Amino acid sequence: MTDLNTLGEIGLIERIRQEIPTPTHSETIHGIGDDAAVFDWGDDYGLLTTDMLVEGIHFDLTYVPLKHLGYKAVTFGVSDIAAMNGLPIQVTISVGLSSRFPVEAVDELYEGIRAACVAYNVDLVGGDTTSSRSGLIISVSVLGKVPKDLITYRHTAQPNDVICVTGDLGAAYLGLQLLEREKQVFLADPNMQPNLSEERAYLVQRQLRPDARTDMVHELRDLGIRPTAMIDISDGLASELLHLCHQSGTGAVIFDENLPIDDQTHLAADEFKISPVTAALNGGEDYELLFTVRPQAFEKLETNARITAIGYLTPDPTQIVLSTKAGQQTPVRAQGWENLMQKK
Amino acid sequence: MTDLNTLGEIGLIERIRQEIPTPTHSETIHGIGDDAAVFDWGDDYGLLTTDMLVEGIHFDLTYVPLKHLGYKAVTFGVSDIAAMNGLPIQVTISVGLSSRFPVEAVDELYEGIRAACVAYNVDLVGGDTTSSRSGLIISVSVLGKVPKDLITYRHTAQPNDVICVTGDLGAAYLGLQLLEREKQVFLADPNMQPNLSEERAYLVQRQLRPDARTDMVHELRDLGIRPTAMIDISDGLASELLHLCHQSGTGAVIFDENLPIDDQTHLAADEFKISPVTAALNGGEDYELLFTVRPQAFEKLETNARITAIGYLTPDPTQIVLSTKAGQQTPVRAQGWENLMQKK
């Protein structure tokens, strides 16, 4: 018998993938290996993604309000559709609940789900409700669409492409640290009131109620830009940059001083003695997009405050490095399965 | 705070449904309230269904081999697509695993998933793999299609329609009783070998590795028959007949002597002192279809050994009754949420 941890999550997915029969339906264009599966629906490509969120692994109800969790579950799936340069259309949500949850908890969860459906303009069309032995489980599937000439995969980037990220990075991770600290304070003294100052609101919001970047999909279309590759980085910038490079057969250089990090993230990182660069690279849960564009296309994005160029792709797939201000280069590394299991 | 059990599963779904915003995408034809959501995809309707299976609620790994479980998970979703008179095209499977599962367990589960994909001619296109705090969780989503003029809903049946079921009923429930008994014997004496005789193989197979009736979808098409309504009865014949009647605004009379019950089911029911009619009505987990046809259309089905007429629809929606040989009529009742929670 082989322990799952020896294989790792990537190893496990690769093992499953290798054993999957070739699709027999000609409309199935692309299966496992991207943010969403791709189907030929005539004028457009159809997109389908599915994610599972498990209490105690992906969220801690000590400090995650159910309303925010419902919103975040939809964000999870919508972000995968956005990463294919698509827009979401329908969503299904399945919920497994242990008997400790009252009806009001379900109401609260669905309040957040509904708010997200309105925010992302997606129709809630179904789901399943079941009991569970312990805790809350949420499974979300999102159907979306993308015009055929706009789809973006992970494997189509080229050397010299500019590597861009949307928004800023590391804030969700520092938000988690703040919430975890407050939880410990609360556990030590349940009469203690949480001490989350106004200035920290951004970090906490990034953790509890992140938004998927469908706005960037619209913006790129308006600018007439189709990325050469794109990927959702909610699992962490480092691991997703590695995926994009491995699948495209390229290397990469990214510059630590270019990583977009909010002032609040810097302040909290100081306080927690965490490197803000590590938080940005490996913190995860930033529902942002990593994408690449041809150098000439980047000119149209240069002045866009919501998009930051963090480096460029190189021809040598063995060299995926972080370059410091001092010129030092270190290999970009992803977190392991074990770390993820502990963190999430 | 209100206990979930006071609301019941149907009440909970109704509560969620009432609060769902009206779809904003014109291609969303039908959302919650049928076996699958329905989308306008041009020539065809697209279908999407999602289900969640939780260890300890839906399956007991003491006697359910993981290979069979993988197969059954796909069957679960495919059966919902068949109930809309559709055929499945793509499937995604998400799996939550606690650390007690070795890599070999995942292999076994996926072996069954793959076998089902081949059997139902469906492409496995994605999923999610995550850890769970306790036990195994499987979420399955299936995309399918149906020609627009063949779709069948639950709400479109009419009085005088003939009520039909495919296959036979109650076998899966008796299979479960056999497996539960063997489990108790094993728990009392782990050296004891299971005593599942050859004759019982059919019952155990109906419980462990049921097949969705996509074959009946093909057969009905070949015969040129479009049911007036159809529903999957894996939750039990009684509850699903009630759904069909409530949504169609009809009553029904079904005849106990017409219920298709296998000889092995009769024998095992005798042994367990369970009424075979109760097993057929409320046992559940028979992955069969309940459908209605106009009386004139039924002539084409009369000699079909795989389809049984069990009664007819009536105009009075308050009268949904089981009629015995002696002419006695009793109201058809569904199992409650609590019973389901205990049983599954």
UniProtKB/TrEMBL annotation, chains A, B:
GO terms for biological process: thiamine biosynthetic process; thiamine diphosphate biosynthetic process. Residues 33-146 form the PurM-like N-terminal domain. Pathway: Cofactor biosynthesis; thiamine diphosphate biosynthesis; thiamine diphosphate from thiamine phosphate: step 1/1. InterPro entries: PurM-like_C_dom, PurM-like_C_sf, PurM-like_N, PurM-like_N_sf, ThiL-like. It catalyses: thiamine phosphate + ATP = thiamine diphosphate + ADP. Mg(2+) 4 binds at D35, T49, D80. Keywords: ATP-binding, Kinase, Magnesium, Metal-binding, Nucleotide-binding, Thiamine biosynthesis, Transferase. Mg(2+) 5 binds at D235. GO terms for molecular function: ATP binding; magnesium ion binding; thiamine-phosphate kinase activity. Substrate binds at H58, E285, W337. ATP binds at Y110, G127, D128, R154, S234. Catalyzes the ATP-dependent phosphorylation of thiamine-monophosphate (TMP) to form thiamine-pyrophosphate (TPP), the active form of vitamin B1. Belongs to the thiamine-monophosphate kinase family. Reaction mechanism of ThiL seems to utilize a direct, inline transfer of the gamma-phosphate of ATP to TMP rather than a phosphorylated enzyme intermediate. NCBIfam families: thiL (TIGR01379). This is Thiamine-monophosphate kinase. It comes from Spirosoma arboris. The gene is thiL.
